[in-house]
Design a protein that fits this description.
This protein is of the alpha/beta class. It has helices at about 10-15, 65-70, 95-115, 135-150, 175-190, 205-215, 220-230, 235-240, 305-315; strands at about 5-10, 20-25, 35-40, 75, 130-135, 155-160, 200, 235, 260-265, 285-290. It is about 30% helix and about 15% strand. It starts with a strand and ends with a helix. About 50% of the residues are buried. One of its GO terms (cellular component) is membrane. InterPro entries: AB_hydrolase_1, AB_hydrolase_fold, AB_hydrolase_sf.
Length: about 325
Amino acid sequence: MPLSLTFDVSDAIGSGEHLTQAAWAFLPEIPAKAPAVLVCLAGGLYDKHYWHMEIPGYPGYSFGEHMANAGYIVIAVDHLGVGESTDPVSSGELGLELLATGDAEVVRQIRSKAAAGTLIGGLAPVSLPVVGVGHSMGACLTTMVQARYTVYDAVALLGYGVQITNVYEQDADAEDLEARVQQTMQAARQLSGVEPGDTHMIAPPRDYLKNMFYAGEVPQEVIDADTAVQSRVPVRAVAEVTTPGFVEKYTPQVTVPVFLAFGAAIDVSPNPYAEPANYTGSPDVTLHLVPKSGHCHNFASHRGALWDRIAKWAPTVV
């Protein structure tokens, strides 16, 4: 079972309210020999369950356990306003910048507490490289965190494209970025049925997203288990992350090695082969396509191959 952790990010947000972020930790047999700490951020509509699913009759859906068995320390984090983390009330709009500030503070604390031996009871002091692993909105946030705070030694960005597509029937077409965000926010509200004043939304019906998420290759029982633990997400954040070009200004500022992965069947990038060109500040960019996979790679039939690829990649770049 994963170990539960809590991080106080109140001072980093600076709004005066008490804010904490929840996380799960997975430890290898010998933590001191881990190649790195993997800090995992889930996408919109997901919380830390994306990295650890226990489904009766369907083993092998835990990224956290798999990578711990490969020797890594894995920490799956809930963003502010998601999962078991605090809902900010007086800290401003729940957009990606606010979430990135909280996530960056969690990574900073993981580094400092691990070095001091206070991260997890019984875990001796360790100073290890930290690799950010993000899926979808979590990949966008991992990019923003690294661009703004430089807390990672490398990043693995899974299922997120600069010119995102396949989410809505029609992409936002306004010239101004904020106007495009407002268009996608309106589309998200219409799909999810939330009221104009609501700060959070639940996913549109899974049938709307089923093909993109699972590409027709995931067992229905696994889809049902995934749906049962879906998380609400801040409306502003989900609108920003599904606005084409929102993350574009951040990608050239990532100066560490980058691992990019996309589903080979369907994903949110209209052209995965064009994505490496967005990371002009990185000295090392790797592209991997997950065979037969849709957007949610951790449920795909070739998920283990993706996880093993990341496990072998990280030690070569940190």
